Batch of 3 targets.
Target 1
Amino acid sequence: MIYIHFIVNPISGKGNNTLCLSRLKKILPEAEFNLEVTYTQYKKHAILLTQNILRYKPDYIIACGGDGTINEIASSLVGTTTILGIIPMGSGNGLAAHLNIPKDIEKAIEIIKRGNQISIDLGKANDRYFFSSMGIGVDSLIIKKYEKSALRMRKAYAIAAFKAILQFKARNYVLFLDKETIQINPYLFFISNTNEMGYKLTLTPKANLEDGWLDLIIVPELSLLQRILLLGYLFAHKIEHYKKAKHLLIQNLVIEMPEVQNIEAQIDGEIYPTKTNTLTVSIVKKGLSVIVNGN
């Protein structure tokens, strides 16, 4: 008997998400699966729910929501033997897209039933894990503006992106990387673990969850025209042709921002306000087992 606990964020994406036991039992028969469903009630509630559920030693915990909900649940599963499953109900769904998990709920449940799994790498920024991406450049401002939008769709993301490129002001960074100290003033500073960041958009199309590396993209400060051009490359799925982007594979990195007291980053599509001007980024190799769409 496989014990599966589903944690559902009812307001992810467009909201009104439900997942009743009768619907699950049509695909996951009671003779083979012990099923439970719990709903989150507020932001970060999924962390507490996951920690409580782990006391009962479930085989799988299924995150039903967007990248933020997935991050909360997956972070609590690092270092445990419980396997993460995903039913994408959010707007971006970067990790689910990389794992080839469809937004169709019945198809996602079928994938859970098959139970194919891999061990994936994950990133860590100070005390926070990330599974898809993080950034402290213009993408952080985009997410901040997107969070204020009442809409959860590609159009709203595009509007937030356009507002951010008009307002973003680059700051000085000091990077400590591979025994080098590098001073930069970037427009975009983006670290990714997945080949998609949501909405079928990507800055790192060759990123791999199992290769032991994080993909770092640095774009220097740009004129307004160049900022708009970069956005065009992104939405046209031609980012690999943008020559001003520098791509590095990293495992460890320290970032200092001497001009600020607190770095404000985006982690898996949500704003992460720190209480320091230093971020230590590292990779945790094979840190989480996750159900995938595969043979």
Target 2
Amino acid sequence: MITVRVVRTDVDIDAYVAVRTLVHPETPMPRDVVVDDRRKPDHLDLIAELDGQPVGVASTAKFGGDPDGDLAFVTIRVVAEHRRHGVGTALHLRASEHARLLEKTTFWVAARDTDADSLGYYRACGYREIGRMQDVYLALAAADVTPEIPAGIEIAAATEEHDRGAYAVALEADADIPAAVPIVSGSFEQWRERSFGTFVDRQLSFVALEAGRVVGYATLGRFTEDTFMHWMTGVARSERGRGVALALKQTQIVAARRAGVAYLRTQNDLGNGSMLRVNEKLGYERRFEWVHLSGPLLGG
């Protein structure tokens, strides 16, 4: 018998994390991330049990790239040996109920290009591919980088005094990300909550200044104990092509290595050729691709 329930207790959180780790042991979901997500009023975590054993989990919320749009985000994970028993569908149905309460009409989902089961399931449900992102890692022990700062540019820590300037850059950079679903920066407060949230490390995040004006920024935050994530690198339209993004990432690599970080991870849309070239030049190695799909809510 399949039962689906809401994650409520610390024991539930532990069970949720354990299932996520069983499904993708190479990229485990940090417990701190689950706890932080739960403080958001639109976020819902679910556990599916088969005969009392946790075998699947799901999460759903407003789509972060455009919280006021029609999309809800959903992620569904089912332990491999318990697939094709209706566990994923049960989670999908319950997540769809929540999405309707959020007044959303469509789900956005990401699945690994190596996960044939999940891709097959979503396509059978009428989902279509709308884009892809590359997931890459850099081992800092082997990284030999010296920042190449363009003439007239100063790289400084991303302290709060620079947030308004970074937001002005984000209004251009977010809009220009070649994503299938356009990214909406939102208000300054919304953007700052998303861009400088709980896990972002300002000591490893930087802005590029020209004559005191922010012309680029790059944020880095903790993902796991030994891995930090590039959350965003953005450059003002007028300053692109000068090597600002490269300088920001080089500075982050040097700072992260000095701080004892072992790995850096980032994800970029396949259409973002300029950033893919920056990552390749810096030695980031591809692990897999995320396939982005959109499709209908179930039931209703």
Target 3
Amino acid sequence: MKNPKDPAAPRAARAKAAPEALSQDAVYRQFADNPGKVLGYRQLSRRLGITTKAQRDELFDHLKVLRRLNRLELLQNDEYRLANPTDLQVAATAPKGRKTPKKEVAKDAASAILPEEEFGQDPIIHRRRSAGFDHVGDGPDRPRRDSNTVIGTVALATPRFAFVVREDGEGDDIRIFTDQLRYALDGDLVRVRLRGVRDGRLTGDVVEVLKRQRVEVVGRLQVQGSIGFVKPDNRKSYFDVMVPPQELHEARNGDKVLVRITEFPEHGDQSRNPVGTVVRN
């Protein structure tokens, strides 16, 4: 029989320490420490050192609660970003590493006021009020505008994307894909929500067209049946203008025309074209 004090004697296996519970604070701080940055689910898992299925489930639950509390915003493909960067002071004063009991998480989620409950079911009213619009006066009840937005002027680059030149002159121009331009044209003044960095460039989405600099385009008229479509001469343009029969004003197929846009589709309705009327041919 081997002496237990003998170094060559086999040692009893040490019990592995249970993984530390993941706190909601730790998840939120990943975004608070990187305002404006878009973080994916897998990227968060690596940053937080998540290795077990239980921890992954816990991360998913925390993200879901933070969304319900309007502290995080889900973009697409499990990518998240800070919903309200002005809330960073709250995160900075919160104690680090504090574990959030499950009862407290459930209580916060239950007490959270969903946007639909606060602003009703109308999506347009909700989008404008959550951005700080449609409120009279500047009292304490008025929601604060998202500080993660900037104002700038559109400069079309290609039919696929444009740049917005910041009005404040700070930082680089913002690249915006044309399906997120809300049909803005060259020179239009817009409000942009920053999304993060892609291929080394700052990107964003137009959330509001503040002032349309021009609503007239020159192009070649193509008549299909009784409806006309004007394809702009500007190669940077990214949409055609539809002209109803009563707005053709004797213009014919193939004519070079000047058309004034009278109606822009709602954002997200990519199946429609802006509607216009022929001013001159």
